[in-house]
Amino acid sequence: MKKSISNFLILLAVCMCTVSVQAQNVNTLYFLENAPMRHTINPAFQPVSDFYLPLPVIGFFSASTGNDAFMLKDLYFNDPTSGNKIGALHPNAQSQVWGQMPDFFRAGTEIQFNLLSWGWRIRDFGYFHVNSSERIEVQGGLPNHLFGQMLNPGMENMDLSRLTAIGNVYSELALGYSHIINEKWTIGAKLKVLFGHAHASANFDALNLQHAQGNATLQGNGQMIVAGAMDPQWINGEISTKEHLNTLWKYLVPSGYGGAFDFGFTYKPIKQLQLSAAVTDLGFMRWNKANYISLTADTTLAGVGEYKYENYVQEGVFNTDSMLNSVDRNFNNLANSMELGDPKQNPLTHMMTAKLNIGLDANFWDNKVGVGVYSHTRFYNSYVTEEITLGAALRPCNWFNLAASYSFINGHWSNLGAAISLATYDGIMFTVAADYIPLSYAKATFDDKTISLPYKSNKLNVLVGVTIVTGTNRPRQKVKAEDIDNVAIAPVFVDSDNDGIADEFDKCPDTPAEVQGQVDSVGCPLDTDADGVANYEDICPDTPGEKSNKGCPIVINEVRNMIQKKMVGIEFDFAKADIRPESYSYLNQIAQTFIANPSYKIEIQGHTSSEGTYPFNMKLSNQRAEAVRNYLIKRGVPASMLTTKGFGPNNPIGDNATLEGRKRNRRVEFDITYEEVTRESVNDRVETSIK
Predict the structure, then answer these.
(1) H/E run at residue 66
(2) Residue-wise DSSP of 517-536
(3) What are phi and psi of 564, to 5 degrees?
(4) Of 205, 278, 472, 489, whose CB neighbour count within 10 A is largest?
């Protein structure tokens, strides 16, 4: 059955003109810390305000559009004949247009606006978000021959087989939560319920248009899918556009359902550096009733593409209306040449466009200045796009942020972005952000009218927001002493313990004075080794220990006794530092004990009797201590655990006038720290037989 599909081609043409690249969030928003809608990039981000309420529609509106193939400047050339600037439609420029245009390029657009949303902070618990928004997404893959009808109507062969387009209109209801785990980690997640309103897609397995002697042969086949409020009878031409408009109320009734999930985190290895990562819109949409419509064409058309450029130039001015009328006739001829199969209803499930957002930023001067890098990656089926953005921000206070960015896309300065977020004293925050701001404009004349067009732009992302906020910090105004009685004093944040964290956000409001400068983001004393003992009370702040021992490890009696027993068996050659082989088994057991207790700090001390010269005895005592240390290291004891010291004859424990006393004085001892809470070391002196 032959049916008109002109309405569908018009719809498809609108999509092609509207879309122009894989769209994305406004990248510059990442660097605008006080903007309430920043949590759409990463659900772990918490607004600086305690409460926010965006106004409907204008509270959060974003739009993105562009293409990855060409800019306006790529469609204008210097005429080699006249030297004048000519456009892509001029016959002398068509070869240059086709020479630089890729065979296939991607395009897309995305629009999102707020319906009803709010967010609030619950002290000591986290930040909650509730968002209801409307989203429109259109994406497509375009062969360059699609524009051949306009740019080069005399083309003998136009391959349109890679033509694809997909569009979705849906509502999103989301519940998000963000929680600060500690001064380093913050996590966030968002669960989304999706309500589909309309879906349309088209793709062609083959579609070819050949010109010959004023006629054209169209051959090909493809498939069109429509669901929701998109009425197939309107596409087929069975009902008029007016009748279709009378049924637009259907867009308010969901026809598809789905879900999506956001997850993200932030990590601060140090106070001045933050790493963030998030996956957003990871989900699907399912349409229970989708209309699958086949498209076929195998016919010869008369008069397609019969026009000349010169016919549309009147007194040196290109007549746009005349050209568009010709193009419209050609589209109608193409539309009437195709046949549509009867719609077949089947369920349709498709994945949403997932995003991966990664950022790294550093701040200086108490976070008043920030610089960073932001990566935004989109995943649509097997097609992946990525953008890298560098940015800098000025944050003199929480109610005023200013940011600038540059995105690496095409190497042009048109990739500059800017953003500002400003809160008034009435509690209204205004936010404006944009990427790829047009900086170069060109004058163009159409129908005897001259207009300015962005010359070096192929993308544009914009965002505006008007939000009611509370709990945002504002500096107090300076007032004269004589006017103090007539001025209402603004509330100020109280910091009772002077640790730099206001009582409103301080989970440890009674921190001792000696802890100033050693607290985390919620005002609690730092505990570097995470042993439950704050640094200011921890005698061993870098080593996990016991609370009962002021954060230091405890040397248990069993270990001490074992070391004492084994040390008795260690022997040296007379007047030498060589350890006798029969002592190896004892040292091996001691080594295993030290390996099992890596928190110990051990000083190996060498001692001698008074026999011999003093310099010789000092040297010998050091050599024997080093010999024991080297042996233990070879057996796997970390070198960082062991130090040595020689005392010579200075610390006798026996009478050097007797043979037995001198034998007791020739010994090696271990000084094991981390035992006494008074920082005093315990000397486990063990007599060593020296022969």
Answers:
(1) strand 57-67
(2) T-B-TTSPBP-TT-SSS-GG
(3) -60, -45
(4) 278
Q: Do the domains 557-684 and 6-470 match in fold?
A: no
pTM of structure: 0.59
Q: Which residue has the tokens 């796997």?
A: 636
Measured CA to CA, the distance from residue 543 to residue 238 in angstroms comes to 80
Q: Which residues pair with 301 in a beta bridge?
A: 216
Q: CB–CB of 322/329 below 8 Å?
A: no
Other beta carbons within 10 Å of 639: 10
Phi/psi of residue 474, nearest 5 degrees: -135, 140
Residue 538 · residue 550 · CB < 8 Å: yes
Segment 386-397, tens digit of pLDDT: 888 999 999 988
CA distance 666 to 621: 9
Tell me if 32 sits within 8 A of 39, measured CB to CB. no
Place of tokens 């009674």: 510
> Could you list the mean pLDDT of each consecutive 10-residue stretch along the chain, which spans 691 residues?
39 41 69 90 91 88 77 66 64 62 75 89 88 87 64 61 83 94 92 91 79 68 80 58 58 85 95 94 90 76 54 59 61 61 83 92 91 90 82 90 84 75 85 84 65 71 89 49 44 62 72 71 76 75 71 65 61 76 81 79 82 86 88 88 87 83 78 49 36 35
Cα(325)–Cα(342) distance, rounded to whole angstroms? 31
Tokens 């010789």 correspond to what residue?
A: 616
- Burial group, residue 52, by CB count within 10 angstroms (0-12, 13-18, 19+): buried
Residues in the chain: 691
User: What's the CATH code, domain 6-470?
Assistant: 2.40.160
- The highest-level CATH class for domain 557-684 is alpha beta
Query: What confidence tens digit (pLDDT) does each residue in 505-556 have?
Result: 777 777 776 676 677 767 787 777 777 777 777 777 777 777 767 777 666 6
Q: What are the backbone dihedrals phi and psi of residue 418, each rounded to the nearest 5 degrees, phi first?
A: -150, 155
**Cα separation, 523 vs 539, whole angstroms:** 21
Sign of CA pseudo-dihedral 229, 235, 236, 237: positive
